[in-house]
Design a protein that fits this description.
By secondary structure, the protein is α/β, with parallel strands linked by helices. The protein contains eight helices and 16 strands. The strands form four sheets. The chain has a seven-stranded parallel sheet with strand order 7-10-6-1-4-5-11, sandwiched between helices. A five-stranded parallel sheet has the order 13-12-14-15-16. A two-stranded antiparallel sheet has the order 2-3. Helix 3 packs across helix 4. The longest helix has 17 residues. The site of flavin-adenine dinucleotide (FAD) has 25 residues, from helix 6, helix 7 and strand 15.
Length: 322
């Protein structure tokens, strides 16, 4: 009756958010007196899977059908259902990301399970199985009690800090019988977004809005990001105007990030933008308008012109590092 977790890797290396999901599942398993089984697909080595024990997994079920190398929501659902049946899982944890958002509702529907999407707390078992989640673009919280026998949760990435511990997981092969319809839609190729730090995993993010005036001015943000080792992000109008690629767009209709430091330059701080970034640990806002709403969500604010403030900040970082 273990707690099941779907884990994701990139070229054989598990993503930080998957380690966080395992740790989250381990906490739930501990309070339920059970264990954690991770489910991995595709080309990943035994050592990498065993190392999931350091984050709380006792077992890893591994399926190596080559058709699973690229994400496929139907086939991944089939894998999770096979794992849930094998383990008699009562709690199934995914991430509130592209994969988890596609697979978890399918699992919940097939198992007639209650689903909490975007959890930001551990379940409170003293009151049933109550999980806290963000609502209204992060402006409020809802506390949802899952009363079904099987429970499905997607965890908001970057909710908890990942702490490496001791331990080694056992690895078992998971045999899955697929049906043709599982592969009726196939991803035939993937082109990776450029940038040295993936935005969803970044601890430091430098983000630009319409106040940057145009793509020709982005070099100042790129220089700051390079100096800090940060990822770049942007507001939606910036991506819509093709100043920056869409994978950098954060907010209600873009990515949700929770870095340690979010530097917002020339961004007004509309609620739809905040929805994607207000979980950041520290927010620094650079804006020339003292009335910009973002200042009220900021930990630190700099009132000034982006083209003057950002280069000076980059110089200061350089000096500090030197
Ligand atoms: C359904 C819906 C979903 C949406 N989803 C998203 C979303 O996911 N993400 C998102 O970002 N938006 C989203 N939006 C749009 C959102 O409402 C705002 O319009 C948008 O965030 C504004 O972008 P901005 O702050 O870059 O631009 P603006 O609102 O134009 O703000 C520009 C800011 O730059 C400042 N500025 C100007 N010049 C300078 C300078 N030289 N130096 C420093 N500061 C300067 C200005 O004072 C201003 O505060 C959504 C809207 C809707 C209706």
């Amino acid at each position: 009756m273990s707690v099941l977790v779907l884990v994701e890797h990139s070229q054989g290396v598990f993503k930080k958010k998957s380690l966080e999901a395992i740790q989250y599942a381990a906490n739930i398993a501990k309070s339920m007196g059970t264990s954690v089984t991770a489910v991995a697909t595709g080309n990943v080595g035994d050592n990498e899977m065993q190392a999931l024990g350091q984050y709380g997994a006792q077992k890893v079920l591994h399926t190596t059908d080559a058709r699973l190398d690229n994400f496929n929501s139907r086939a991944y659902t089939r894998v999770m259902l096979a794992a849930a049946q094998k383990e008699g899982a009562k709690v199934i944890v995914g991430l509130h990301d592209t994969v988890g958002k596609a697979v978890s509702p399918r699992i919940a529907a097939r198992l007639k399970a209650g689903l909490v999407a975007g959890a930001v707390s551990y379940p409170d078992l003293s009151k049933g199985f109550v999980v806290k989640k963000n609502v209204f673009s992060g402006k409020a919280f809802a506390y949802v009690n899952i009363t079904s026998d099987v429970k499905v949760i997607t965890l908001m990435p970057n909710t908890f800090a990942v702490v490496k511990g001791e331990g080694s997981a056992t690895v078992e092969k998971l045999e899955v019988t697929f049906e043709d319809k599982d592969f009726s839609i196939q991803v035939t190729g993937v082109s990776k977004a450029s940038g040295s730090v993936p935005l969803s995993e970044a601890e430091l993010v430098v983000s630009g809005g319409r106040g940057m005036k145009g793509p020709e001015n982005w070099f100042v943000l790129e220089a700051l990001a390079k100096e800090l080792g940060a990822a770049l992000a942007c507001s939606r109008p910036v991506a819509d105007s093709h100043w920056r690629p869409h994978n950098e767009h954060v907010g209600q209709t873009g990515g949700t990030i929770r870095p340690n430091l979010y530097i917002a330059v020339g961004i007004s701080g509309a609620i739809q933008h905040l929805a994607g970034v207000n979980g950041s640990k520290t927010i620094v806002v650079i804006n020339k308008d003292p009335e910009a709403p973002f200042f009220s969500a900021a930990d630190y604010g700099v009132l000034g012109d982006a083209m003057e403030v950002v280069p000076r900040l980059t110089e200061a970082v350089k000096k500090f590092k030197g």
